[in-house]
Amino acid sequence: MDWWNAHPDAFSEAVAVAEWDELHVERRTVGPVIEERPVQRLTITVEEAAVVLGISRATAYDAVSRGEIPCIRIGRRILIPRVALERLLDGAGQ
Q1: Which of 6, 34, 37, 48 sits most deeply, having the most CB atoms within 10 A of its CB?
Q2: Cα separation, 10 vs 57, whole angstroms
Q3: How many domains does the chain fold into?
Q4: Inter-residue contact 56 to 45 (CB < 8 Å)
Q5: Which residue from 90, 40, 88, 91 is spatially nearest to 64, judged by alpha carbons?
Q6: CA–CA dist 27, 17 (Å, integer)
Q7: Minimal CA–CA distance to 12: which of 75, 67, 81, 92?
Q8: Cα gap 23→41, rounded to integer Å
Q9: In what order do the strands lie in the sheet with 77-81?
Q10: The pTM is what?
Q11: pLDDT tens, 63-76?
Q12: Contact 15, 84 (CB under 8 A)
């Protein structure tokens, strides 16, 4: 949570992404759920973040639990907003 407090603009963007997903899912009682999505996903999984960062899956989950990698939780899913990961990497050299 400390990372989110230090980067409130990234938090606002992540919340907007989650709200967009929630508003743009068509709910039906019969048939498949059809979603309209942006061309590029705005979030990645912890496993995808591990590949991008060049670390193991276990190390990525540990970093998420320590708050070193910013994430959002939707139900049981843990997602990493691309913008938050990019900002984290941009600020890594400072």
Answers
A1: 48
A2: 24
A3: 1
A4: no
A5: 88
A6: 18
A7: 81
A8: 16
A9: 43-45, 77-81, 72-74
A10: 0.58
A11: 999 999 999 999 99
A12: no
